[in-house]
Amino acid sequence: MSTKRKSKSPEAQVFKPDKKFAKTTRISSMAQYKRMWKESIDSPSKFWAREAKDLTWQKKWSKVLDWKAPFAEWFVGGKINVCENCVDRHADGPRKNKAAIIFEGEPGDRTVLTYAQLKREVCKFANVLEANGVKSKDRVIIYMPMIPEAAIAMLACARIGAVHSVIFGGFAVDAIVDRLEDSGATTVITADGGWRRGKVVPLKDNVDAALEKYKGVKKVIVAKRTGQDVTMKRGRDLWWNEECAKVPGTHKAKAFDSEHPLFILYTSGSTGKPKGILHTSAGYLMGTYISCKYIFDMKDDDVYWCTADVGWITGHSYIVYGPMANGVTQVMYEGAPNQPDFSRFWRICEDLGVTIFYTAPTAIRAFIRAGEEFIKPYDLSSIRLLGSVGEPINPDVWLWYREHIGGGKAPIVDTWWQTETGSILISPLPGCTPTIPGTATLPFFGVDAAIVDETGEECKPDESGRLVLRKPWPSMLRTIYNDKPRYKKTYWGDFKGLYTAGDGARRDKQGNFWITGRMDDVLNVSGHRLGTAEIEGALVAHEAVAEAAVIGRPDDLKGQAVVAFVSLKGGKTGDDALLKELRNHVGKLIGAIAKPDDLHFTPALPKTRSGKIMRRLLKELVATGNVTGNTTTLEDPTVIDNLKRILGR
Q: Which 3 state secondary structure label does DSSP give 529?
């Protein structure tokens, strides 16, 4: 049975590229874009070989692509060092005294690192890692605040061939344990703490608690940030600054195979176990480099700011690797956008002359809610380009962003991509693409995207379906770490030869892609992916809980909010104290971002006769207050009426 559904296109307001802006961009016409895109699809080896010449190779590749679906190898036979491309080739040339990172801490401290200084710090830390036994392909966990040392640690790992796995600083102890166990990490890099909304996040304490459960770590290297007392275990724990003082500031960048593993980044899936997405060196670097070059149109005089955290893929690709491969000056900010109030971002933009600003719709909605009085005192005229990332952006939010942050003139690149894709795959090009609020517009170079129905048949214009990719691209994930069968099943199991993104979408008559959101059991909360199974698992881990079902509901601020339905053991009824306890329990096991926004106690959950929880009915109840779908397979139809009463419907 087909699930194709016609979706009427909204009244679209089209914004054509500014002619003055287009004159300075690398791609300044749709004819140029179409010519390059066609070449990238029809003659990918020719296209990517030409683009790859921009990078520094220690040995040139012999073959651009070896594709044995679903496994790809790019720039086969080539030797490269990712860190050398991001640091050395700028530090050893005309950009050596150019600011690489302008850091502002939440308390207001500010540090500037030039490319020459960055190289020295990265070389020192590479020496520290090697002196403490870290070798090529060893896994290193990085659990840090948004400080320059986080980027330095990532680049130092890349320099020596160690495989880093960054954990978002908002994650709690059990999430750290899961990632330690799956990766088999032997080294952890952390900090005493980090600042967030005026409070200290106890990072080192969390690591200590995780290492009570996982015994495989030999060394913990700790950067001093917040200055509170922490426990340092003799023989295992080392201070970053003390170790760096022992080693020289020079280090030769080693040559690694193009397919050498670069990092593992864990992302939520439709099962409780996070997926370790594995990215390798040359192809990933190529994807992040070229997308910054063309989509953000990065130039030597730009001051670029991506507001993401390095714990997410956006921080990897568009704070560390892509911008630094382009030799740009970028801003790193440690704290929250509303600390001490919602003027913080705009003061930084004015002070530092930010020219490219890349943030999430969640943040933009928070700025709208806070009010224009926080924006009006600041001169944002330096901003020439805006970006949106993490989730589909509502047209009204898009228009507000352009008017109030972009001064009614800055183009917006609404970017679609994933942890798995490594780099941006669908986006406008600011000098040539007509933009329409709410659409990510057209595929980037090398991206052959389509919308298909559940049989794999391509949908007609304005029919909703599943977003798929029909050809490999350089920055694609290579596998799920230690789980090739899961990689095949999750991403290539639905349709032969097609990568399934897990997102719903439609394509209008002009070819623009409209992303409608996740189709699997993954929520997009404030631009961050959270598996419903992972949250359900955390709830059921509480001694009072028998069963739990988690769904998402639309939220004006977060995009999606977490809604939990909980049945207690022994048929007991819950109260406000237990509700609070369960929310905190989820926060402790996963992180505050996963705490249910709504939690409802119910004697029973809607199940089929085979025992499967029917989450679609819960979604319909929360969204409309009623159930119109098929309920004939329900084991107990009276559950729906009980849930209506619980929801006050």
A: strand
